[in-house]
């Protein structure tokens, strides 16, 4: 018996980060996982600057949580995947 509706906030496929390990709560990959990256790009389409700000805050929090991880690899993981060339003339 399902009504076909998903309830916001309790979706199993939300792909939200688990802290302090920063793995994906849905698929277990390192967050942001491939699915989450695709969703973030869609969610922040046309507002890439806000996405950078959001990921930057996640990176800052993850850097606190994952002190053993090299900072450069965390930057790659959180921000390095963003497509370049957001500036249009
Ligand atoms: Zn995921």
TrEMBL record:
Q: Which residues lie in Basic and acidic residues bias regions?
A: 1-17
What is the designated name of this protein? Flavin reductase
Species in which this protein is naturally found: Micromonospora noduli
Q: Residue ranges of region Disordered?
A: 1-20
């Amino acid at each position: 018996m399902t009504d076909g509706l998903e309830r916001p906030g309790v979706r199993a496929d939300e792909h939200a980060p688990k802290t302090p390990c920063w793995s994906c709560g849905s698929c277990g990959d390192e967050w942001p996982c491939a699915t989450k990256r695709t969703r973030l790009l869609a969610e922040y389409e046309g507002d890439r600057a806000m996405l950078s700000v959001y990921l930057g805050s996640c990176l800052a929090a993850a850097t606190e949580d994952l002190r053993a991880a090299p900072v450069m690899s965390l930057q790659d993981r959180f921000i390095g995947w963003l497509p370049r060339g957001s500036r249009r003339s």
